[in-house]
Description:
Blueprint: E1 4-5, E2 11-12, H1 15-33, H2 40-51, H3 57-72, H4 78-81, E3 86-91, E4 97-101, E5 104-108, H5 114-125, E6 138-142, E7 148-152, E8 162-166, H6 175-178, H7 181-192, E9 197-201, H8 207-215, E10 224-228, E11 240-244, H9 258-265, E12 272-275, H10 282-290, E13 298-302, H11 306-318, H12 326-336, E14 339-345, E15 351-360, E16 367-370, H13 395-400, H14 413-418
Parallel strand pairs: 9-13, 9-14, 10-11, 10-12, 12-13
Antiparallel strand pairs: 1-2, 3-4, 3-8, 4-5, 6-7, 7-8, 14-15, 15-16
Amino acid sequence: MRPEVGGDGRPLGSTSELEERLHGLVVAARRSAGPATGGLRDQVQRLARAELPLLGGPDLEHLVDAVTARAHGLGPLDPLLTDPDVTEVMVNGPGRVWIERHGRLERVDLDLDGVTIERLVQRVVGPLGLRVDRSSPLVDARLPDGSRVNAVVPPLALDGPYLTIRRFGARPVTLAEVCPPGVAELLAWAVRSRSNIVVSGGTGAGKTTLLNALAAEIPPGDRVVTVEDAAELRLPGDHVVRLEARPPNSEGVGEVSLRALVRNALRMRPDRIIVGEVRGPEALDMLQAMNTGHEGSLSTCHANSPADALRRLETMVLTGSVALPLGAVRDQLAAAVDLVVQVARRPDGSRGVVEVSEVVPGDDGHDVERVSERFDGASRTTRLAGPDGLRRLPARPCRALGGVAPDASWTIAAAGARR
């Protein structure tokens, strides 16, 4: 872009100087005149032509697009956030931007300086009443489209500021897309039969994606209350009530914890409660809900296996304010949780279900019994097998249906199709 002269006769040189000058004029104009007549881009274009009369063609259009995005969205990150194939944007400090596309990480040729990153962070958190600065250098937030944002600024961010945005697809994923056919039908049947299900997996393994797919199988007449730390679930139907925890404001007051919301959800006459992710003492309240007439509830937790998920839930309950003996906690877990579904990220970047386990009584109060052979989603047989090797369905969901279960032939349908 060639050097330009502003409407006041002052020379303007670089692209960044032009963008900074025009953006300041747009902000001032909107503050003094209120909402503009016509679209924001039209207003930016009028100001650009008035202030930069020698600029035209592609240079003008590029400048107008950049200033419009900066005034209305997240500026240089907007092209990444509007790409339907990008699921995560990671800014690792000035000049280092990465994205996740189709499960794989890619570096992006996008040169952001520290001032620009800080400006983007403030644009995200400002409208939410949150503050991020040296005295409060960590923030979690949510964009209007549901994307999750985490920002860390100095002094905690040594090479920062850092910004991470996790996006969610516009189209909900179905069980058939993350499970082989036999397992997809098993899980759909388990949800309809009011099984209590915990989805377990590592960070970025697809826990929330599977939770959405499971929740889509809930009958439309059931009243569902969702409780989340950051709202990510998108359930169909009109009988869904969504609750989201609230962090403290900039003065350190006003927090509403996940545990308080789980307790409040019990007073809202739910048929089922969905806790987006249990991380602490709210695990006790979730288990009590599962054991007190709210069968068919769902949740997720971070763990590397179904057995590990149960141990983590034990630890979370024991960190609460109520002093419970370990034996009582294990008894409650065994009574509350029917199935643990393990998800993982595969070597090719895809995500999916790798194991389904039933929780059964054991010597220590609970144990996990695999009801689905571990599989890679393509080449191995999907079976339902107990320790005796016999194919069967989970016992407790069968009892919930009064013994009525689907024909077990579907458990080997996928294997037959692959031969």
